[in-house]
Structures are given as C-alpha cells and as structure tokens.
Amino acid sequence: MVTTLTYDTTSLFFTLTTIFVFIWYAWMYIKAKNHRTTPLPAGPRGLPLVGNLLGLDPELYCYFAGLAHVYGPIFKLQLGSKLRIVVTSPPLGREVLKEKGVVFANRDVLDAIRNCIYGVNDVAWTPYGPEWWMLRKVCVSKMLSNTTLDSFYSLRRQEVGSGRVAPST
Predict the structure, then answer these.
(1) pTM (two decimals)
(2) Are 78 and 51 found together in one domain?
(3) Containing structural domain, residue 127
(4) Is 117 in the same domain as 150?
(5) Burial (CB count <10 Å: 0-12, 13-18, 19+), residue 163
(6) Could you list the pLDDT tens digit for every one of the 169 residues in the chain?
C-alpha cells in the first residue's frame, strides 16, 4: 500500500512538473514572439478585434492628415488583425518607395487569392525577385506591346462607345 501511494505521488509530481514546464515554455515562446526588436511608430489604439476600422473616415486623406498632425509623419494603424504603417510626408515616402523599395515590395496574399490564382503565379502577387522580373518582362513584351494593343483597338473603342468604360482624360 505504501509503495502504491509513493508511486502515485511520484507519478503525479512528474506529471504536474511536465505540464508546468510545457506551459512555461509556451508562455516564453509567445512572449519572445511578441517582443519586437525595433519599436513601432506611435498610433491610435484600436479595439481588440477590429482595430481602428470603426474609426476610419470615408475621406482617408483627411483622416490621415489629422493622425499625422497628432502622431507625426509616420504612424501605425491596426486594421483588423493586420498592422499597417502609414507614411504621410513626401521625403519619407520617397525613402520608403525609392531607397528601401525592395524591403517593402512584397505584399500579403490572402488564402482566397492563393486558391483562385493557382498558387499566386502572376505579376500582381508573386514576391519581388527574379521570378517577378521574368513575369513582368513577359507581360510587357507580349501582352502590352504595341502590336497587341493595336489589335484590340476596335474592341477598346467599342467598349468606350458603349459606355461600359469611361474614356481616360
């Protein structure tokens, strides 16, 4: 009887220790994952699930100008589960798009788009790199060449004439 009680106590001790260690490692992993090495810019606090979506103004440029006045020319917005960084000053925009363009070239691909576009193998969704450059080169040389555009001239005029497409000004 004493050996059974000792065995049960030892088994319970090791089980509880294992569970505690597992929970501790999981907590440390989540804490390390959420710890950012570089601080994010300031921005308005969002609600837990929707972020700042409910506070967006229909005229985004006015909304962003107001936020830039409060938080500076670069700020963060939480739009649903996605964190977005907004740049409102031309010099910072030039630096982001021209000098650091490769860093910001890729975009998130939704699962619905991934399923609809056969593994995201097109110019709009392929990550920046050699494959994207090849797709762009083929698109420009074959699909957007003068001969291809000229072959669809009558169809384009017909679409504009029917009122389906507004003529460009």
Answers:
(1) 0.52
(2) yes
(3) 109-164
(4) yes
(5) exposed
(6) 555 656 678 888 888 889 988 888 888 777 766 666 678 899 998 888 888 998 888 888 889 999 999 999 999 999 888 888 899 999 998 888 888 777 777 777 777 777 777 766 777 778 888 888 898 898 888 888 888 888 888 888 888 877 766 656 5
